[in-house]
Amino acid sequence: MSVAVTPRKVVIAALLVGLALLPLYASLSGTPFLLTLFTRIIILAMAAVSLNLILGYGGMMSFGHAAYLGIGGYTVAILAFEGVQSGLVQWPAALAASALFALIVGALSLRTRGVYFIMITLAFAQMAYYLASGMARYGSDDGLSLDNRSEFGGLLNLSNKTTFYYVCLILLYASIYLVWRLTNSRFGMVLRGTRSNETRMLAIGFPTTRYKLAAFVIAGTMCGLAGALIANHTEFVSPAMMYWTRSGDLIVMVVLGGLRTLFGPVLGALALLFLEQFLPAIISAAVRPFNPVNAAKAGEYWQIVLGPMLLLVVLFARGGIDGLLRLLSSRERHG
Amino acid sequence: MADALLRIENLSKRFGGIQASDGISLAIPAGELHAVIGPNGAGKTTLVAQLSGQLASDAGRIGFAGEDITGLPMHRRSARGLARSFQVTSLFLDFSVLDNVAFAVQAHDGHSFRFWSDARRDRTLREPARAALARVGLAERAEWPAAKLSHGEHRQLELAMALAGKPRMLLLDEPMAGMGPEESARMVKLLRELKRELTIMLVEHDMEAVFALADRITVLVYGRVIATGVPTDIRANPQVREAYLGEEEAAHG
């Protein structure tokens, strides 16, 4: 075990500490919007961490992962709407609903491979989307607002933004720890071996489908928790949070950050949401000297810049941001 | 041979218009090294795939250790002690050599719904894996990525993985394919040691190796068994010479 300090480790340590200190910075610098932005980043990072378990370590190209965000979120919102305010009921119910949905989707989709698997997971997510759109009692397309965040008695007050931030952060760190333990366990070795060479796993005696299904359910459940957090964060749920482009965003986060890496999904979520937040302003500023009239409008086309950036990462940095950091680390050591 | 370890009766498989195996019957007693030879396209690999469970058979019956395993899936057959090595090397190339063998050990060590402790620090997996590597002469390559091994070493690793599951019978599909003479000789030596402990069905093109190792030989042509017998009988069999050996000897000059 080498304990060499590499640029990669420095960046990751700085990230972990930085996230823990962020509320302090936000209050000292008088930028409370940072706290809101980072709460969102942390929650979506958690969803990306859960997707990485099946997409990265398990090689299962699920294109419907945002469905679990919606199911977790809607479970909390519907229970709140019906008068159940306790988080001790809402959150376990969100986990159970997501687990059940993952079990059904997994049991049916894991019989297929490749493009069919992608299409089936996508189809199920779209079904959840249309189901939510059709629930007239719960707002249909317009979505459903929460009057209060989940209540945990005198234990926690989630309405306090700093408290809520730390709850999300601790759950994110817990998910990363869980994925770390899982992927190095016997179960994880089966999952990773199956991604590497499923025929061979079968030949040496592993019934691979049941392990993939278990991973699929674990990932769905984790993402359901992220959904419960999102509902509390925005105090609002709508079918849009399950739309297939949201599933695409999660995939982009994982690939951008680095598939099969522990912290890649966090780096990916951070990078993508930062770009989403600040790219429009950067573009506007860059255009202003040339065309002051249309500068603000140019910012709206930020995705034209984001697209090629993602393309470059996929083409030239196969390991994503984590891969770039690793490359930097190994250069340093050899040179 | 009422107590044959592997008993195949009338096994058939058809791919469209091609009868890949055609009513094959064979009985291999425990402890025998049984070689299956035949010209290209004779259906040797199809037979191995049928026996390992990778391919479902159209007709016929496979008995292993007194039980009918015809309908069992691949992982069940493997769990009962019928291990297979692949003709085209099929490894976990992005894992270490030791990891590859540890997979095979783990497959035979109960279920893998163990979610918490580190499998790479699990001595019940790592030690048998190291022992199997030592057995095939790859001990000092244990920590290498499997992708970095030479072709011959890949074949040795294949064998270590097959051994790691403590099988009763090995199905070896061309273990010497693509090996240089030196690597081949090492593999022959290894198989000679193993044949005292295990029942082996060896599918191989290398005639020198086959005649040096086999207790009995079965010759397949177009999916049919044309002869089964001890090496001297097979060498003398006119049908075999015509169908196969003649062509092979002519090729070797």
What about the largest sheet of chain B? 6 strands, mixed
**What structural category characterises the helix and strand content of chain A?**
mainly alpha
Give the end-to-end Cα distance of chain A, rounded to a whole number of Å. Answer: 21 Å
CATH architecture of chain A: Orthogonal Bundle
Order of SSEs of chain B, N→C? EEEHEEHEHHHEHEHEEHH
Helical stretch tally of chain A: 14
Query: Over the alpha carbons, how many angstroms does the gyration radius of chain A reach?
Result: 21 Å
Shape of chain A: globular
Unreliable segments of chain A (pLDDT under 50, ≥5 consecutive)?
A: none
Instruction: Please provide the count of β strands of chain B.
Output: 10
Number of domains of chain A: 1
Largest pleated sheet of chain A: 2 strands, antiparallel
Class derived from helix and strand content of chain B? alpha/beta
Strand order of the largest sheet of chain A: 1-2
Q: List the helices and strands of chain A in order.
A: HHHHHEHHHHEHHHHH
CATH topology of chain A: ABC transporter involved in vitamin B12 uptake, BtuC
Oligomeric nature of the chains: heterodimer
According to DSSP, the number of beta strands of chain A is: 2
